[in-house]
Specification:
With about 325 residues, the protein is of the alpha/beta class. The protein is built from nine helices and 16 strands. The chain has helices at about 10-20, 45-55, 65-75, 90-95, 120-125, 160-170, 170-185, 215-225, 300-305, and strands spanning about 1-5, 25-30, 60, 80-85, 100-105, 115, 130-135, 145-155, 200, 235, 240-255, 260-265, 270, 285-290, 295-300, 310. A seven-stranded mixed sheet has the order 3-2-1-4-5-7-8, with helices on both faces. Strands 10, 11, 12, 13, 14, 15 and 16 form a seven-stranded antiparallel sheet that branches. A two-stranded parallel sheet has the order 6-9. The termini are far apart. This is Methionyl-tRNA formyltransferase.
């Protein structure tokens, strides 16, 4: 099939590479210009560079709503558009243009975690598995019929970076497998159960701020979700920002006020956590490694030289 590809960052790069390696013919690539957004500088393999290396025409667009782009799409005469990590809305005149419509590749197990940063949100929320879904695009965000979907488990110590590497390897088999079904003439796919749908916004600095009323289990997942190269989870100690680089859920249960710097447990310094911490039924978050405002990384036991005082959400 003749394929036009819309995509960005490493997700788009992997998708384009899979298409180039397949029997399908990539006739045009549309991608975004480079961005300075903190999350868009991560996993930033260039779709444009890969296309140019293979002699595929490239168009750079922030939004695909101009007449010139639409003319180029019609001239390309695609059988299908394949999109992955396209960051803005595709209008119906674009996604309905090809003979077989548009296949969108999304890194979640739809209908859950439509929208942005699905791996991070899924890890924070304690999901047992994550994955990649190829679905037909329609007027709703990430809502079309599912053509192919594959999942991988989430381990108890996994970081968002671990899950990225595990799911990005699913892009090629999910994308090419879906295209092969469509090329073979299949037109009926799995309808999404919209009662199970959830939608998530882009991550920002505010979303990495630690709220000590969360449970220790939730905070442990937040720290792992905001692992390098993502911006780290952060808090304030004596008015100064510190980033929490590593932590674990304490074995002991600690009562008191959320955010209290309380006790040394193993290699960690336990912080009281949970909205109901006063009951003494909660585990704490044992921080093991931090980064200070001046960029120094050190064990928490060296940073917290005395117990007492509080970690807070704001200075």
């Amino acid at each position: 099939m003749r394929v036009v590809m819309f995509g960005y960052q490493t997700w788009g790069h992997r998708t384009l590479q899979a298409l180039l390696d397949s029997e399908h013919d990539v006739v045009l690539v549309v991608t975004h210009p480079k961005s300075e957004h903190v999350y868009e500088k991560i996993w930033s393999d260039s779709v444009a560079d890969l296309a140019e290396e293979h002699g595929v025409p490239v168009l750079l667009r922030n939004r695909p709503d101009d007449d010139e782009l639409f003319t180029r799409l019609k001239e390309a005469d695609p059988d299908i558009i394949v999109a992955n990590n396209w960051r803005t809305w595709l209008p119906p005149r674009v996604f309905n243009l090809p003979r077989h419509g548009t296949l969108n590749v999304h890194d979640s197990l739809l209908p859950k975690y439509a929208g942005f940063s699905p791996l991070i949100w899924a890890l924070i929320n304690g999901e047992s598995e994550v994955g990649v879904t190829a679905h037909m695009m329609n007027d709703e965000l990430d809502a079309g019929d599912i053509v192919r979907q594959e999942a991988v488990p989430v381990g108890p110590k996994d970081t968002a970076t671990d899950l990225f590497h595990r799911t990005v390897d699913l892009i090629a088999p999910v994308t090419v497998g879906a295209l092969d079904l469509i090329a073979a003439g299949q037109r009926e796919f799995v309808r999404q159960d919209r009662s199970q749908a959830s939608f998530f916004h882009k991550r920002s600095v505010e979303d990495s701020r630690i709220d000590w009323t969360w449970s220790a289990e939730e905070l442990d997942r937040l720290v792992r979700a905001q692992s390098e190269p993502y911006p780290s989870a952060f808090t304030f100690h004596r008015g100064r920002r510190i980033e929490v680089l590593a932590a674990f859920v304490s074995q002991g249960r600690y009562g008191g006020t959320p955010g209290r710097v309380f006790y040394r447990e193993g290699d960690g310094v336990v912080i009281v956590a949970g909205a109901d911490a006063r009951t003494g039924r909660n585990h704490g978050l044992a921080i093991t490694r931090v980064r200070t405002e001046d960029g120094r990384e050190l064990p928490a036991a060296e940073y917290f030289t005395t117990m007492g005082g509080y970690l807070t959400a704001r200075p």
